[in-house]
C-alpha cells in the first residue's frame, strides 16, 4: 500500500540535529509522519508545525507523492538569539504509493500544524464477492 522511501532519511535527521542548519545539507529536511489504514482509506499525517498552509505544495505523478513545505524564520531582524532549535527552511518528503491506492481522489487538510492526507483504496483493489452461477442443487436421477 505504502512503501518506505529514502533509507538515508534517519541519517539526514541525525546529521541535521548535530550540525543544525549550518551543516550545509543540500537536501531539504525530512518530514515526520504517521500512516495507517482506516476502512477503505490510507491516512497519512505529516507534522508541519508553524508552517503557513500557503507554502505547502502537494503533487502526485503516477504513484509518487511529493510533499513540500516551508517554514520561515520569524526571529525579528536585529534580535539577539538566545536559543534557536526550531528548524526553518524547506521540508520535503516523497512517498511511493502502491497501485492499490486511488491517486485521483486524494483529500488533503491542514489543522493544528498537521497535514492529513486521505488516500482511498482503488475500487479494483477492494475485496469483492464472486457470484457462482449454474449447476443444480443435487444429483439428477437417471431415467430408464
UniProtKB/TrEMBL annotation:
Residues 24-135 form the SHSP domain. Transmembrane segments: none annotated. It comes from the Bacteria. Belongs to the small heat shock protein (HSP20) family. PANTHER family: HEAT-SHOCK PROTEIN 20 FAMILY MEMBER. This is Hsp20/alpha crystallin family protein.
